[in-house]
Amino acid sequence: MGRRVPLRGLALAGALSLALPGVVWLCYDLHGAWVTLLIVAPLAFLTVLAGEWIAQRRPGGLRRQFALVATLGVVALAVGVALFVSLMFLSSHDALMTVLLAIYAGALVLWLSGRVASRALADVDAIRSTLAAVGEGRRDLRVAPTGDDELARLGRQVDEMIVRLDREERARRELFAAVSHDLRTPITSLGLLATAIDDSIVDEAKRREYAGRMNTHVRQVAALIDDLFDLTRLEAKELEWTMDRLAVHDLVHDAVEAMRPAADAGSVAVRADVNGSIVCSHGNREQLSRVLFNLIQNAIHHTPPDGSVTVHVEDRDDGVEIEVADTGAGIAAEQRDRVFEPFYRGDAARQPPGAGLGLAISRAIVEAHGGSIWLEEASVGTRVRFRLPAYR
Fold this sequence. Notes:
Layout: H1 7-27, H2 30-57, H3 62-88, H4 92-135, H5 150-198, H6 204-235, E1 244-247, H7 248-265, E2 269-274, E3 280-283, H8 285-301, E4 308-316, E5 319-326, H9 358-368, E6 372-376, E7 383-389
Parallel strand pairs: 2-4
Antiparallel strand pairs: 1-3, 4-5, 5-7, 6-7
Helix pairs in contact: 1-2, 2-3, 3-4, 4-5, 5-6, 6-9, 7-8, 8-9
């Protein structure tokens, strides 16, 4: 029943129809109040019903709806003034002035309604045309609204959505290109090696050598596929881990010792620097070790011989921060915002080993633990720092 009859609107009309005569009664007399009630009550109820019909049926476009509402208000004003003049005014001079003031107010209401409606509808048209163009594949358009009303905020949200969509599509294209690039080399090599093995001219020793190379390429492709699968599940929050209380200093020392042979092979010094009474964190030891392995391995790879890699651990308010710092060439300023993107590797770093997923996976793991990861400013080399919440 409430959907068909505008109960709230009728209640408002009834309240106004009683309030206005009540004021007249207090200020003048009962007869004036009664006449006022006879005039305003029908007008109020009819106006509410007509307005509700416009709101429910929504005839035509918004321009027509705004015009109907403005016209309805002016008609209600004109009829009310006319009835008051005919029933309650004794002076023709006062009646004429009242009519003129009503016409003046109605004209202003119509003009102001038109101005507000035209600005609002211009924003609606801009949003509609922009979304239509975006649906057709364009990403260079913006609503660029003015003002601070709801439509302006909606327009700015649309612009932000277009920027995010463009960025995600670019990242997706770069991802496909990077996957193709990183798969093409081992697959091409596998094809050539398979052809060579199948060639009867190749002796048995060469076949065994080629089979070993094929096994290396197969492991490379399998590692890439595993990393892609893990990254996809991490970003989709589909992985569930056992979360335990972790002693952060033990986690760091174990990771440093595990990576020491790789550092020694590259003549790079690696050490742990644990400051203060390090708090415990809460997380999955295997996954957080994977983060440290990725960061330390990446630092070793980009550090020249006789350089160093240091893993700092520090207490922070309600958490602990771990930093992997190296003495390599560092990261260019224009690349800093993209180093955590999948497959992104700077020009100087786009060399084996790795497919450029280590930092992306590390970020996903850290964020899944409720932490954050970022690049610190460094005068020498690179400093990657991540924060984990304290154990509660």
